[in-house]
Amino acid sequence: MRQAYHDFALALDVVSRGVLGQKPLRTTASWAPLLLRFRYYICSLFSWGLLTEEVAQEAAKVLKELGVKGVVDPLAGSGWQAMLWEVAGGLHVIALDSYEAKSVAWSGVKLVTDSRRALAEPIDGDLTSWALLLSWPPHSPESVGLDLLRVWHGEFLIYLGERALDDDDGPWPGQSLLDAIQDDWDLLQRYRIPSWPGCKDDLTIYRRRKTE
């Protein structure tokens, strides 16, 4: 399954060129609603962000060199990305989510009443040895991504999602979350990852900016 998912994620580049490439709109317009339905189906089984094992390995190596031993994933969904960070990246993962109904569970995800309270869970060791993962926080006006960032007191942050937004609110996490990251966090590493047609995803590692 991991290999099949990997091949699928890489094949989306071909799909993107077909949908958004040089073909006339009249020949591709009917593809969009079909692709959207397919996307929702795939995301319900796995995750919204298309994390590959290669990127999980490379990012985990950088995190380990920085002294990070684990990832806190408070929006874990099916646990697919948590599994990749553990199996491919070799990191410990604390996976939680407030959404109970899941089509399939790829790793153990603890159910919490509110994802905003997920960080109240006890964490083994100092927070400096853990990184907060925000992977495709829910759409605006939902503010759970920003709320989680505000209560996270650790030194490291992993963000997986869209980077370029065309308006103030943005279609996914909202511009306010990206502004908060830009204001208070220093970029350490950025990785290109596969993305669905029309999306501009990447995975970035940040370290909290030191104040004078």
Q: Gist?
A:
This protein is an alpha/beta fold and 212 residues long. Helix content is 36%, strand content 19%.
Task: Give the domain tally.
Answer: 1
The rounded Rg comes to 17 Å
CATH architecture: 3-Layer(aba) Sandwich
Average pLDDT for all residues: 84
CATH domain class:
Alpha Beta
Our measurement of the CA-to-CA distance between the termini, rounded to an integer number of angstroms, reads 48 Å
- Adjacency order of strands in the biggest sheet: 3-2-1-4-5-7-6
Percent strand equals 15-25%
Query: Could you please say which CATH topology applies here?
Result: Rossmann fold
Order of helices and strands: HHHHEHEEEHEHEE
Main pleated sheet: 7 strands, mixed
Name the overall outline.
globular
Q: In percent, how helical is the residue content?
A: 25-40%
Q: Number of helix segments?
A: 7
Low-confidence stretches: 167-171
Fourth CATH level, the homologous superfamily:
Vaccinia Virus protein VP39
Give the assembly state of these chains. single chain
Organism: Durusdinium trenchii
Protein name: Class I SAM-dependent methyltransferase
Topology:
Layout: H1 2-20, H2 25-28, H3 31-45, H4 53-65, E1 70-73, H5 80-87, E2 92-97, E3 110-111, E4 130-135, H6 144-151, E5 156-162, H7 175-184, E6 185-192, E7 201-208
Parallel strand pairs: 1-2, 1-4, 2-3, 4-5
Antiparallel strand pairs: 5-7, 6-7
Can you give keywords for this protein?
about 20% strand; Rossmann fold; about 210 residues
Describe this structure in words.
This is Class I SAM-dependent methyltransferase. With 212 residues, the protein is α/β, with parallel strands linked by helices. The chain has a single domain (53-208), classed as Vaccinia Virus protein VP39 (Rossmann fold, 3-Layer(aba) Sandwich). 36% of the residues lie in helices and 19% in strands. It has helices spanning 2-20, 25-28, 31-45, 53-65, 80-87, 144-151, 175-184, and strands at 70-73, 92-97, 110-111, 130-135, 156-162, 185-192, 201-208. The chain has a seven-stranded mixed sheet, with helices on both faces. Strand 6 and strand 7 form a beta hairpin. It is globular. Residues 167-171 have low confidence and may be disordered.
